[in-house]
Design goal:
The structure is a single chain. With 164 residues, the chain is α+β, with helices and mostly antiparallel strands. 20% of the residues lie in helices and 35% in strands. It has two helices and six strands; from the N terminus they run E-H-E-E-E-E-H-E. It has a six-stranded antiparallel β-sheet with strand order 2-3-4-5-1-6, with helices on one face. It is globular and about 60 Å long.
């Protein structure tokens, strides 16, 4: 085991003002990304389901379809996801933050040229590290004890834990 497990998945999301006519700009944006090595292109629909229940009433269920566009490099290890209000860069080929930041900024600048973004609402990043441990009792050496929940505070051996 190494002291710092490798990052096996990284993503960065930039949320911006909603562009209701994003579909009109996808073709030009796709061409720029294609020339930059992200030639694998797909269009998908994302289904959003929301339900609400108050008291003893029947739940109210609402469904909404949302279009998204996927741009990946040919080995499918890095790519972008474009929504009408966000751009996401993701990779399983993480080397260092500066490379990911440069890729995102380049794509974001091109998107701004195409759609004239008004504002950025939020920027978020997620790193997923691979932890390989023979003995789960040593998990506290790899992960901050506060992230282990009760398993970090209780004596005994951890067999299985799930946290949301």
């Amino acid at each position: 085991m190494t002291a710092k497990p490798p990052v096996f998945y990284f993503l960065m999301q930039v949320r911006f003002n909603r562009i209701t006519q994003m579909r009109q700009h996808v073709s030009a944006f796709q061409e720029v990304l294609r020339q930059d090595g992200f030639a694998d292109f797909n269009e998908e629909f994302q289904l959003k389901v929301a339900w609400q229940q108050g008291g003893n009433a029947q739940p109210s269920i609402q469904e909404a379809r949302r279009e998204r566009w996927i741009f990946r490099n040919m080995d499918r290890r890095s790519g972008f996801v474009l929504l009408d209000d966000a751009l996401v860069f993701h990779t399983t080929a993480y080397t260092r933050f500066s490379d990911c930041k440069a890729a995102m900024l380049k794509a974001l600048k091109q998107l701004d040229v195409e759609v004239d973004l008004n504002f950025v609402q939020r920027i978020g990043m997620r790193y997923l590290d691979q932890i390989t441990a023979q003995d789960l009792s040593s998990l506290g050496q790899w992960v901050h004890p506060g992230l282990l929940g009760l398993a970090g505070d209780m004596a005994g051996n951890l067999r299985y834990a799930y946290s949301e």
